[in-house]
Amino acid sequence: MIQEKTPINGISRVDTNAPVIEVKEIYKSFGKNEVLKGVTFSVNKGENLVVLGKSGSGKSIAIKCLVGLVEVDKGEINVFGTDITKLDNNELNKIRVRIGFLFQNAALYDSMSVRENLGFTLKRHAKDLSAEEVENQIKDVLESVGLSEAIDKMPSELSGGMRKRIGLARTLILKPEIILYDEPTTGLDTITSREISELILEIQKKNKTSSIIITHDMPCAKHTGDRIIILKEGIIHAEGTYEELEKSDDEWVRSFFI
Hints:
Layout: E1 3-4, E2 14-15, E3 19-30, E4 33-44, E5 48-53, H1 59-66, E6 74-79, E7 82-83, H2 89-96, E8 99-102, H3 114-125, H4 131-144, H5 160-172, E9 178-182, H6 190-207, E10 210-214, H7 218-224, E11 227-232, E12 235-240, H8 242-246, H9 251-254
Parallel strand pairs: 5-10, 5-11, 8-9, 9-10
Antiparallel strand pairs: 1-2, 3-4, 3-6, 6-7, 11-12
Helix pairs in contact: 4-5, 6-7
């Protein structure tokens, strides 16, 4: 059953109760450093899950495990119903192409224009597209992030907020079903951070994406998250909505909301 949630800025939040990601008891160590200690969580179709935690709590490692960039020592990671821990690299790549990853620094190629950055990404995965189709898709995705005028700019000519938007455009051009955001508002001013948070919600509504958002930015967490989990020393210490966790009896949990 689809449950409509309270609209935020006119955007209706939807929970379909259908997990697209199920992580079960994953463990990961680097030498004697135990980073993940039996982490279990799920993400429903169309849901934005925010992951909070102090530095070193395992947040970034957890999402890298979801796309096979880091191999777990033990546990199960079901993505679209398939346990990716049992896949070879070719099978894993078929899953990865359905997942978008927005890195902290947007990871643009500095020697390429915006058009070339987006075209390079698209042509790597859709080799049969004509030049006209590539150009149309580039223009469409730039319009969706509000930066049509930046098509011929170089990354060095872009502000931090614009780089984030172009990085997001490069993720969206492959039409992912899941998006992993790693600190999407880091280094941005308050107004630009709010704009990126609103864009995350617009993408959720328009493309029906499921997302995991790692952030230290509490306004971003409040604005974008349908649900929040908090990692502490490699385990999930708390889970709930922003409002529930803000009122937690646990002093450590409440410290995130001060």
